[in-house]
Structures are given as C-alpha cells and as structure tokens.
Amino acid sequence: MSETTLDNIVSLCKRRGFIFPSSEIYGGLAATYDYGPLGVELKRIVKDRWWKAMVQRHENIVGVDAAILMHPTVWKASGHVDAFNDPLIDDKQSKMRYRADQLVEGHIAKLRKKGKDDEADRVYGDLVAALQAEDMPAALHALILREEIKSPDSGAFDWTEVRQFNLMFSTHIGPVSDSDNKIYLRPETAQGIFVNFHNVRETSRLQVPFGIAQIGKAFRNEIVARQFVFRMREFEQMEMQYFVKPGTQAEAFEEWREKRMAWHVSNGVRASRLRWHEHEKLAHYADAAVDITYEYPIGWQEVEGIHSRTDYDLGRHAEFSGKKLEYFDPQTQEKYIPFVVETSVGLDRTVLMLIADAFDTDEVNGDSRSLLRFHPEVAPIRVAVLPLVKKDGMPERARQIHDELQQHFNTFYDEKGAVGRRYRRMDEVGTPYCVTIDGQTLEDGTVTVRDRDSMEQERIAEDAVTAWIRDASARWTPRP
After folding, report:
1. Is residue 220 packed enough to be buried (19+ CB in 10 Å), middle (13-18) or exposed (0-12)?
2. pLDDT digit string (tens) for 340-377?
3. Is the dihedral angle over the CA atoms 395, 396, 400, 403 positive or is it negative?
4. Which of 86, 229, 266, 365 is the most buried (most CB within 10 A)?
5. How is domain 6-75+179-355 classified at the CATH fold level?
6. Is 3.30.40.230 the CATH classification of the domain at 85-166?
7. What pLDDT digit, counting tens, does each position of 221-238 carry?
8. Is residue 233 within 8 Å of 220, Cβ to Cβ?
9. Hey, what CATH topology would domain 381-475 get?
10. Model confidence, pTM
11. Start-end of H helices in 374-445
12. Phi, psi (rounded to 5 degrees) for 461
C-alpha cells in the first residue's frame, strides 16, 4: 500500500468526478470547489445518514432550515462582529499570509518529527500561554520571533506584526450600499437555531431536554485556505443544539460525545484514525469543549466539535432583542434560560475524511490497483451491473437486473470495454459490488457477483442478488 497524500486524493477526485475546482475554465477561484456526480452522491448520503441519526431516531430532536441572510444584530449579539477573528501575519518577502497560531503549530510538528519532543512540549506550552494572553497578537508575534520560525513558502524570516482579522463576509441589502443596510453572510448555522428557539419549541410542543438540528451553508473569509475542501470559504455544516436544564449539561455533553464518535465509526472510518482533542482554552461562552479529530494526510485535524455553550447564546439574544427566551418547566414550575450542548460537524471535512480513509492501493498479479474502500452504506455507487459483451441478449438481461437493483441501491450500468477494466474503474470509485451477466445467465438465470475488497467472485441466482448485497454490506468491516 502506498502512502495516502493529499495530492493523490485531489487527483482522484478530479479524475473520477468527485470534486472539481470551481470556475475552472476561468482559472478557478481560490478555496472554492464544486462537487461532481460522485461527490454529490457521497455528500447526499452523508447528510441523509446524519439526519437519520440525529433527527429521525430521536423523538425529541427536530429540524429547521434557517435563512443564510439574517438581521445584522444577530451577529452583534452572538459576538461575531467584535470577536470572530483569526491572528493574521504576513511574510514581507513572498507577500503570503498565514494564521500566526498555525505557524507555531507547524513548527511544533517539525520538532516532533525530528524527535525533539521536549522542545516541542516547551513551545506548545508557550503557544497555549500566548493564546490565553490579554494581548494575544503581540504574544504570538513574540513567540514567532523568539523561535525564529521561518515562512513555509519563501524560507524568509521577515514578518509583519500579528493583527486580528475578522472572518465574516459582508454585503449590503437593497439598492444603496451604506452602513445602514450592511448585512453578513452567516459564518455558522447555529444562530439560526437560537433565534428560532421559541418558534420551534412552541410549534413542536417540545419540552426540555430537546434538540434542534440544521444542515446548511456557512461562509468564512479564511486567511489560509489551501487544504482542498478541508478549509474553504464556502462550506456546509451539520449542527444540532441540545437544550437542557442548567446543571444537567455535563451529563448531556458526555452522552453526545459518545454518540458522535460512534456515528463516525458507523460510516466505516477506522477507529485508529480518530481521537479526541481537549481544548486548552475554552471559548468565553463554554464550560466544556472537545473535538473529534481525524488523521488526514495533512495531519490530525478537527472534523467535529462538541461544546457545552451554557446559556450564553439565548441570554445574549434575549438581551439584544428585548424578547424573553426563557423556558417554563411544567414539571417543576421553574423558569430558566436553558443551557446548550452543541454538536457541529463539517460536511465537507467528513466527505474528505471518508475519501482519505477509503483511499488505498494494492497489487494484483503484479499490477497496481487504486481503489476506495468505502463502507457499502456510504459508497456513491453500491453495485455495478456489467454485461460481459454487448451482444447475444446480455445487455437486455443486464438492463432488467439493473432496473430491479435500482429500486434498492445506488446502481451503475456499464457495457463499454473489457470487463477487467470495468472492474478496475468500479474499484477506483469505491463501488463495493459488481454483478456480471454472461452466457450462462441466459441459460440458467445465474450471475457472477464480485466483492471489491477481496476480489472474490461467486455464482448465485439472479433473483438472490438483492439479498446477497444486503448481507454482504452488513458483514463488511473496515481494514485495520
């Protein structure tokens, strides 16, 4: 098996129709991507599995689809106008911009790679202290200078000061562009849930504890967005805000920690490639926070955050709107502002994780084979139907079988080229099973089914194919 690199993944995604650079015929637009035929299927499957796990299997969780454009005071109340910043630093020679904290993290990673763990631990401690400093930009700048961290692109050591950079995109509503009609593209989907707290609770007749879930687009003017779909300026989030009685948030936090990790494993992601990352510095509104991280080709990175947000969000919106956002508990006759436990997962990061985790190469009879070992439940194509040749009634019989399987699975029909090459194409896009129709099918009604991972083939009756695929999917296990 060869090493999985980001370049390998980007190449496969472009070549096989998962993800394309956006506006490519015009030279593209940095950090924006379009999902192709297979990518959009994978994305839809992930969304459906998340919605089923979070909403359809919980009778006390419902969904919303809030507008992208919201009243500008929403973002003042949430703190995004004043505090949604990243520390920005420029290399004077190359004119490249970087996040100052990520520069230091990259330096720490290099030290560990060289076996200098004690030095890396020291710098990590200094980074935590800098992030918690009252003047965080100045502290980060001093740390970069003290460690003599050079530019990753030019190798120069010629930095500007560190300054804060607000990540929100702004625009204007109406025909005149002035400060009175300035609005923002939402940088997260959570606030659309909070401002609808009473609307949802009253119309759904929900009692605490209950949750509100949403899948939607968000926009951030990222300083550094050069890691394929891992960090984009337009991305999609899957979030759930779980409202609980104050004092019970720790129990809910632990419950959702366990459920969310189990969901990622259920999608076929190898547990050995997932781990927890505890936050060294909590956001001002949180009393607990942890990330689920995955070992991407770019290193261990966050794919999902679970946060205990206290009553900060509802309290702030009550303050700024003048509306009461309290909950009356009919059991205890108490009034209180609920606390919130949030689960927030990046849809694009999840898609990238699934592709990276499935990516593999192996050797078959001396030839290299590239494939995606998707869990059958998340594969964009579950089964391919292949007539051996384009004659003798095989395509017609294959079409009949395809039409039947299409009622149950995402299917693909292919009659072009040698069957061995068709197998390889299906392997590369992650199709777990192929059904081949040949001369014997016309004689006795049997077909050949092929397993992607083992490449083993079995002869079965054509009317047993659906059950065979379901059974094989249920037995599937990820590689070590």
Report:
1. buried
2. 999 999 999 999 999 999 999 988 777 788 899 999 99
3. positive
4. 229
5. BirA Bifunctional Protein; domain 2 (3.30.930)
6. yes
7. 877 667 899 999 999 999
8. yes
9. Rossmann fold (3.40.50)
10. 0.88
11. 394-405, 419-428, 439-444
12. -70, 145
